[in-house]
C-alpha cells in the first residue's frame, strides 16, 4: 500500500506489509515509535550505505529526548472526532550523573470507517549514566501492546462513491485486523579512548508476538488467512572513530560492524469467518545479517570536504517447513557498496554538494512469501540494487532564509514491487527488471518576523519502468511506477508568541498518480490543510497548555491510502473528512 506523505519520494517504490528484518534499512515496524517523547527527527535523503546499513531510499533518524536538568512530571489528554483519545504521562530529569525520561501513553480510536477501531498502550523509556572519567552508558526500554487494529480494507471505485465510510464486505466477514504485543531493550556505550578517538558499542533484543486476520479463509496458494507469528531478534554492533591530521588537513575516520539475527515461528491457519481454523502453514524462518563498513571525511581545504565510504553486507535466509510439504530452503544475498561525496562551503551562506553511491536492499521476510505454495520462500525474488547520483545546494541567507535544492537520478535494478494474485487475497512481491527514478526537491524556510516562520517544499518525481515483464507476461516498459505522484507540495506557517500563544497552519498537495503497473487506474489529486492553536502559561512551577486543532480543514474528500496493484479493483481507502480535536497538558517541575 502507498500513501505519499513526504517531500522525498525516492524510497516510495517499496511499500507493503511492515516486516522488521535484522537490518535497519528498507521496511521497519512503526508500532513502537513514541512521537510524544521524540526530541529530534532527522531525514537523510538518498542511499548512505556505509554507516546506516542497506537502505536505498534514505534514513529517518528518530531520537528520544533527554530528561531536562529540572525533573518534571506531566500529563496530557487529547480528545477528538471519531472516538479518538490520547492519554500520556511523562517524567524526566537529571540527578548527578543519572538522566532519565519515561513516557507512558494510551491511544483509542473508533475510526472514520466501519471496522477501523484501534487501541494501543505504549511505554518508552531512556536512562543514561555519565561514567567516571567521561563516556556514557544508555539503556532504552520500549513496550507496546496493541490488542486491536481493525482493517476496513480497500474499496472499489463504485463502493467508495456509494458510501466512503463502509468497510469492504470480505473484511467484515473475516474480521480482518491484527493484534501486537512487543517488548524491546537496547544498551549502548560511548567511551572516548583519547582526545581524538572514541568507541561506540550497542546491543538490543526484541520479542514480538503478532496475530493477524486477512480477508479470506484459505487462498488459492493454500495459505490460510489467519496468521500467528512469534518473532525474536537481536543484534550488536559498534564503531571506532579517529580524528587524524593528514598533511595539515583534518580527517575523521570511522570503521564499524553490525550483526543481527532473527528467528520467526510463522504459523497460518484457515480463517473461518473470524475464527481460527485448520493449520495450513508451519515454518521457522531464520535470518542473519552481517555488515562491515568504513567511512572517512577529509577536509581537502578550508572550504572543500571529501567523504569516502564503503560497506559489505551478507544476508542469509533459511526456512524450515514443519508441515513436511517440502518448503524448506535457503537464500543468501551479498553486496559491496561504495559511496563518494564532495561538499564545497562558501562562508556560512552556501553549500554545493555532489554524491555518488550504490545501495543494496534485500527482501524482507514478508516479501519472500511464496506465491506458489503455502510454505517456503519465493525463490525468484532477488535483492534490489541502485546507483544514485545527486547534486544540490543549500544554505542560509541573512540568518533568516534557509534554502535547499537537490537534483537526483537513480538507476534501479530488480526493484521490489507488490502485486496481488487473483484469489490470493494478499500481497506478493516481484522484481521489476530495471527502472529510472529522477526528480527535483526544493525547500525554503523564512523567519518573517520574530516568532513567525513560513516554510515550503516541492518535489517533482519522474519514476518509470525501463524493462519490466510481470510474472503473468505483461510488459510494463515505459510505464510510470505506481504510487509516486509527479508533483508534491507542502507549506506551513508557524507562530509562537512570547505571551505563550502559538498557532500553526499546514497544507499538503498531492498530485495524481497511478495505482497499477499498467497505468490504467489513476488516483485523483487532492489538497489537505490542517490548523492548530494553543496557549502555554507558567505559574509557580506549573505549566498549563490547552490546545485545539482542525484536520482536513477544507473538508477534502480524498483517499488516504491507495493499495497498489490490488485485485478486484479494491484500490481505495477513503480518508476522514473534516475532524477536530482538543486537549490539555499539565506539567510540574520539581
In short:
Helices cover about 5% and strands about 60% of the residues.
3D structure, described in words:
With 590 residues, the protein is mostly beta strands. The protein has a 22-stranded antiparallel beta barrel. A two-stranded antiparallel ribbon has the order 1-2. It has helices at residues 49-52, 157-162, 169-173; strands at residues 38-45, 58-64, 72-80, 84-95, 98-109, 118-130, 136-150, 177-194, 197-218, 224-246, 249-272, 275-299, 304-321, 329-346, 350-361, 384-397, 401-413, 416-420, 427-431, 434-449, 452-467, 487-496, 501-510, 526-535, 537-539, 542-551, 559-562, 572-574, 579-589. Strand 22 and strand 23 (501-510) form a beta hairpin.
Unreliably modeled segments = 1-26
Mean pLDDT: 89
- Please state the CA-atom Rg, rounded to the nearest Å: 25 Å
Tally of separate helices:
3
In helices, the fraction of residues equals: under 10%
Distance between the termini: 47 Å
Globular, elongated, flat, extended or rod-shaped: what is the shape? Answer: globular
| Proportion of residues in β-strands | over 45%
Structural class: mainly beta
Q: Using DSSP, what is the number of strands?
A: 29
